[in-house]
Amino acid sequence: MALYKTDHNKWEDVHNAWESESFLWSPTNAYENIVFDRILGKLHALLTNEFFIPVYFDQHRGNQSFLIQLLEDNIGQTFHLGQDREYIILIEHKLLSGGMFSRKKIKQISETYERVKRLLHNNVNYNEGWHYGRVESISTSRDDESLISAIQFNCVSTEMSPN
Question: DSSP letter at 80?
Fold first, then answer.
């Protein structure tokens, strides 16, 4: 049995080649980023247009904010020319309370999640984005400095393959 020395420089060259302009990757067929274009982006726009509360994808900031996180992306049903994809999204609303959990703060956070619930109910089918949208559950919690409501939003999007 023979052992051969591997030339690590070849692998380094491969990685460097991807960084050069002549080796930019581009898909051969145009595609749609369904999860962002139809679901997360439209959900972001819906919340932004309804509230004067910033909406983020990475972390909470400021006195209060929304945070959108994709929890699941599942293929629900496959058919000849496409598929139904089911999404589970977590929408968190965080309100800083400074350690004070007064009736006023609890009322404020509950009014916000009730308004989100109504907004999503009114947009069960949203602008070529999703259909069968529904709030599955809402939970509230608190840490040392804030109140947090977690809203689980489920929806379906149908992707049709080009002919």
Answer: T
As its CATH architecture, domain 33-160 has 2-Layer Sandwich (3.30)
* Mean of the per-residue pLDDT values of the chain: 85
Taking each continuous run of H as one helix and of E as one strand, the counts in the chain are 4, 5
Closest CA to 124 of 139, 113, 110, 136: 136
Reported in sequence order, the residue ranges of 17-145 that DSSP labels E, i.e. its strands, are: 55-56, 64-79, 82-96, 131-142
* Radius of gyration over every alpha carbon of the chain, rounded to an integer in angstroms: 22
pTM of the model: 0.79
- Domain ranges for the chain: 33-160
Distance from C-alpha of 61 to C-alpha of 150, rounded to nearest angstrom:
16
The contacts of residue 85 (CB under 8 Å, 6+ apart) are 34, 35, 73, 74, 75, 76, 156, 157, 158, 159
C-beta of residue 95 within 8 angstroms of C-beta of residue 51: no
Q: Is the pLDDT of residue 16 over 70?
A: no
Residue 40: CB atoms within 10 A of its CB come to: 19
Residue indicated by tokens 């080649």: 17
